[in-house]
């Protein structure tokens, strides 16, 4: 699974970084996070896409650190995103105070935008049928059978 960037940047990625991200990805598939799914692009292990579909008990049922910390795993970064989105204090840069209704509207607009994006459809193809369901239909991406199907499709 050695996938180097199509256009290497100023520094050449090390095999250690590639192994680390590959291991992180395998761990995400084996032990999925609650409320979030992530995959690297097929041609670049350094470019990731994620889908946050709501935390249990939250309304929904870019992380900008000043300095990169290489000890962070992909899972820890994704959980920081989820935490940031569920924060109701709004005392941080990027916080946005909105009503629950506005958040639900924005979440639907985001879903619709992503469903029109060919790269999103390629990376999350196993979720497209669920995401295309009518708003009135209930679906649960945290369902164990759904997570098993997602994991099986990415192994």
UniProtKB/TrEMBL annotation:
Gene3D superfamilies, per the entry: Ubiquitin Conjugating Enzyme
Segments traversing the membrane: none
The record, for InterPro entries, names:
Ub_conjugating_enzyme (IPR050113), UBQ-conjugating_enzyme/RWD (IPR016135)
Q: Which SUPFAM superfamilies match?
A: UBC-like
Q: Please, which domain of life does this record's source organism belong to?
A: Eukaryota
Question: What are the recorded Gene Ontology BP terms?
Answer: protein modification by small protein conjugation
Q: Where does this protein have compositionally biased stretches of type Acidic residues?
A: 135-147
Instruction: Identify the stretch(es) annotated as Disordered.
Output: 135-155
Q: What is this protein called?
A: UBC core domain-containing protein
Organism in which the protein naturally occurs:
Panagrolaimus davidi
List the top taxonomic levels of the source.
Eukaryota, Metazoa, Ecdysozoa, Nematoda, Chromadorea
């Amino acid at each position: 699974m050695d996938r180097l960037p199509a256009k290497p940047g100023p520094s050449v990625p090390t095999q250690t970084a590639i192994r680390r991200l590959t291991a992180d990805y395998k761990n995400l598939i084996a032990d999925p996070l609650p409320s979030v799914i992530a995959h690297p692009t097929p041609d670049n292990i350094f470019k990731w896409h994620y889908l946050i579909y709501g935390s249990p008990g939250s309304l929904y049922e870019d992380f900008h650190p000043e300095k990169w910390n290489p000890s962070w795993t992909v899972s820890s970064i994704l959980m920081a995103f989820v935490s940031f989105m569920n924060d109701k204090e709004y005392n941080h840069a990027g916080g946005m105070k909105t009503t629950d209704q506005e958040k639900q509207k924005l979440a639907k607009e985001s879903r619709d935008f992503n469903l029109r994006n060919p790269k999103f459809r390629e990376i999350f193809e196993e979720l497209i049928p669920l995401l295309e369901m009518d708003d009135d239909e209930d679906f649960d991406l945290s369902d164990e059978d759904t997570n098993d199907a997602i994991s099986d499709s990415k192994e």
